[in-house]
């Protein structure tokens, strides 16, 4: 009986998904010739990542094999703060600092892709979100609490200004299919739910900690989970009440010499982060990478602890029974 149970126990244990122990995580090393990546996005039609930089007039594609190719070359680009692919309209949306603009490029045009429009912004941009149905683009102000909305013609309007944002700027923004935006604030770690129609904002209450501390970006998975990355942490955030409250349900940390710079979602279910050296002079061995996130989820660890406890209890019971059996056999022999 014990061997049969032990085999079953081992099978159940091996069936638990424990991301931290997996060996198939996808890691792409960005070529050393590519300097200071600042943001990235997944292009589902072209099946590659698109990367923008803190300096330089180009935007590159990065393949799964780590091959970089220039897809945009534009003197207007000085420093990219955020990048986004509008796959339905095949537009590449780029938030640029100095000058502060939202610029769109036609991904259907030959490389280097042509510029569709470039719209001036009143302050330095942070993140980009998109309503795929309307094509409206939402851009946060990184130095001030404002969200701009940009229509298909490139016309910019103030969409959301709220006292709830305080004196701090906004960074990442993601569109949620239920008709609102999730916006994160780096310095305070706060998350806001912003109505897509009128721009009214409410703070999302964190149930088990500060949800967006050091956040640089936010992206949504197909199941409604938000992935927030920045500094030395990337978090999985979930809500059961329409984002009045939310809880951190998974978290991954990075080493002291690296930091998470941006986050994107591939195929709706696989989160990737841009990992860069904390200091630019750290050297080639710490060059930037694109890494798939492997979650250390509380549910998996809980099941592991339950199974290990159950297995230990059964083993002690079996040991006790064997000891009793040996004792009884010795008595009969005596």
From TrEMBL:
<keyword id="KW-0472">Membrane</keyword>
<keyword id="KW-0732">Signal</keyword>
<protein>
    <recommendedName>
        <fullName>SMP-30/Gluconolactonase/LRE-like region domain-containing protein</fullName>
    </recommendedName>
</protein>
<dbReference type="InterPro" id="IPR015943">
    <property type="entry name" value="WD40/YVTN_repeat-like_dom_sf"/>
</dbReference>
<feature type="signal peptide">
    <location>
        <begin position="1"/>
        <end position="22"/>
    </location>
</feature>
<dbReference type="GO" id="GO:0005783">
    <property type="term" value="C:endoplasmic reticulum"/>
</dbReference>
<keyword id="KW-0812">Transmembrane</keyword>
<keyword id="KW-1133">Transmembrane helix</keyword>
<dbReference type="InterPro" id="IPR053224">
    <property type="entry name" value="Sensory_adhesion_molecule"/>
</dbReference>
<feature type="transmembrane region" description="Helical">
    <location>
        <begin position="301"/>
        <end position="320"/>
    </location>
</feature>
């Amino acid at each position: 009986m014990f061997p049969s149970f032990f085999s079953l126990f081992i099978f159940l244990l091996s069936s638990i998904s424990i991301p931290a122990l997996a060996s198939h995580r996808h890691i792409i090393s960005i070529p050393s010739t590519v300097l200071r990546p600042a943001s990235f996005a997944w292009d589902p039609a072209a099946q590659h990542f698109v990367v923008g930089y803190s300096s330089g007039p180009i935007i590159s594609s990065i393949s799964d094999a780590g091959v970089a190719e220039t897809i945009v070359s534009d003197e207007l680009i000085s420093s990219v703060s955020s990048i986004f692919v509008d796959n339905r309209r095949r537009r590449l949306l780029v938030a640029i600092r100095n000058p502060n603009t939202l610029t769109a490029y036609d991904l259907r045009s030959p490389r280097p892709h042509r510029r569709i429009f470039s719209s001036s912004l009143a302050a330095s941009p942070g993140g980009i979100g998109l309503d795929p149905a309307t094509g409206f683009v939402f851009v946060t102000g990184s130095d001030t609490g404002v969200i701009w909305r940009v229509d298909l013609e490139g016309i910019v309007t103030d969409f959301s200004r709220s006292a709830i944002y305080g004196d701090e700027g906004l960074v990442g923004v993601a569109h949620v299919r239920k008709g609102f935006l999730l916006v994160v604030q780096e310095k305070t770690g706060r998350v806001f739910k912003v109505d897509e129609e009128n721009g009214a904002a409410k703070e999302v209450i964190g149930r088990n900690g500060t949800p967006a501390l050091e956040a640089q970006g936010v992206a949504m998975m197909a199941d409604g989970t938000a992935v927030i990355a920045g500094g030395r942490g990337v978090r999985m955030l979930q809500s059961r009440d329409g984002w009045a409250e939310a809880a951190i349900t998974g978290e991954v940390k990075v080493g002291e010499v690296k930091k998470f710079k941006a986050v994107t979602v591939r195929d709706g279910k696989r989160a990737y982060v841009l990992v860069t050296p904390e200091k630019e002079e750290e050297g080639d061995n710490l060059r930037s990478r694109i890494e798939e996130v492997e979650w250390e989820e509380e549910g998996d660890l809980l099941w592991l602890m339950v199974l290990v406890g159950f297995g230990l209890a059964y083993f002690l019971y079996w040991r006790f029974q064997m000891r009793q059996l040996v004792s009884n056999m010795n008595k009969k022999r005596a």
